[in-house]
Amino acid sequence: MRRGLGWIAALSGSILAGCNGVQSALDPKGPAADELANLIWLFTVLCAVIWVLVMAVLVTIMLRRRQRRIHPLHVDQASERTVSRVVISAVAATGIVLVALTLLSFFANRTLAGVGEDAVLTIRLTGQQWWWEVKYENAEPSKILTTANEIHIPAGEQVRLVLQSDDVIHSFWVPSLHGKLDLIPGVVNSLTLKADKPGVYRGQCAEFCGLQHAHMAMLVIAQPRADFDAWYADQLRDAAQPLTEEQSTGRDLFLDRPCVMCHRIQGTTAGGTTGPDLTHVASRRTLAAGTLQMSRGSLAAWIADPQSIKWGAKMPVMNLTGDELNAIVAYLENLK
């Protein structure tokens, strides 16, 4: 008996553990996520109560002995009226519950769809196959910032996200902070994002968008205002200059190869826009939209053969010698 209870406790603990973490709709860290979590729990509890009531009635009926009728055609009028009342009441209760849940969903969606008027900054998020372009808009052109796959925001403040797509339908979803909203070619959607406290919150494309849909993640990094301002100012600077001869060689190789056709590095002649901006690539936590943890080894593996890691990505295989690969990795590793 005790062993059975132990298994139940362990199973329950493992299931509930999956409700927490950096990507869980049941672990809300912002007002929009709170709204959705409350709705989820309300639906769950109400449906559980209804299920228990239905099962109780079913068991009662199965256990109740049928009374023998005196005559096959005999009808118990009182029993028939009781059954009719029960059925009518159940149908009416079902209708009321459905209408109530519909109204709750409607008001929750209306709340989520609202765009905060007091947003402290606007970020334009563009879905690509298969990565995220993140552009911080500003009235001063010199303060416009473009990065990729990581969204830094000030904690406790509202941020307006403008969502768009250049290719197919994607879907923005950071469960701990907000619900899903699609990025549709030719359509601009927007939402207000707010993190109650500093932290790292994982997001995912929630609409099948092609071969590497599963490898199209993002991180929302909420920081105290002072840390966010420092990060923003640092990201606006030109790329770091090479510090060693190997890094200088890597920069020259990067600028001499097709890399410049797809990637931009501020302060150099590389001005491509097909792929992510690499000006501060080594400051990011992941590589290839959350597919790899940022490290020297990950950079080398990705540059050497991206198709073996993310088949179907637009980045081609580069024909580099071992020394050339090491030099380019050394240069990119310095871009923080």
Count the E strands.
Answer: 12
Biggest beta sheet summary:
5 strands, mixed
Percentage of residues in DSSP E strands: 15-25%
Task: Work out the helix count.
Answer: 9
**Which class do the helix and strand fractions yield?**
alpha+beta
CATH fold-level label of the largest domain: Immunoglobulin-like
Q: Quickly give the CATH architecture of the largest domain.
A: Sandwich
Work out the count of structural domains: 3
Q: What does the radius of gyration come to?
A: 28 Å
Fourth-level CATH superfamily of the largest domain: Cupredoxins -  blue copper proteins
Q: What distance lies between the first and last C-alpha atoms, to the nearest angstrom? A: 58 Å
What percent of residues adopt helix (DSSP H or I)? Answer: 40-55%
**Order of the strands making up the biggest sheet:** 3-2-1-5-8
Low-confidence stretches: 8-17
Short description:
With about 325 residues, the protein is of the alpha+beta class.
Task: Outline the structure in words.
The chain is an alpha+beta fold and 336 residues long. It folds into 3 domains: 24-58 and 84-113; 121-236, Immunoglobulin-like, CATH 2.60.40; 245-333, Cupredoxins -  blue copper proteins (Immunoglobulin-like). The chain has 9 helices and 12 strands. Strands 3-2-1-5-8 form a 5-stranded mixed sheet. A hairpin with an 8-residue loop joins β6 and β7. α2 (31-63) runs antiparallel to α3, α5 (245-256) crosses α9 (322-333) and α7 packs across α9. The radius of gyration is 28 Å and the shape is elongated.
What's the SSE blueprint?
Layout: H1 2-17, H2 31-63, H3 77-113, E1 121-128, E2 131-136, E3 145-148, E4 150-154, E5 159-165, E6 170-172, E7 181-183, E8 189-193, E9 199-204, E10 217-223, H4 225-236, H5 245-256, H6 259-262, E11 286-287, E12 292-293, H7 296-304, H8 306-309, H9 322-333
Parallel strand pairs: 1-5, 4-10
Antiparallel strand pairs: 1-2, 2-3, 5-8, 6-7, 9-10, 11-12
Helix pairs in contact: 2-3, 5-9, 7-9
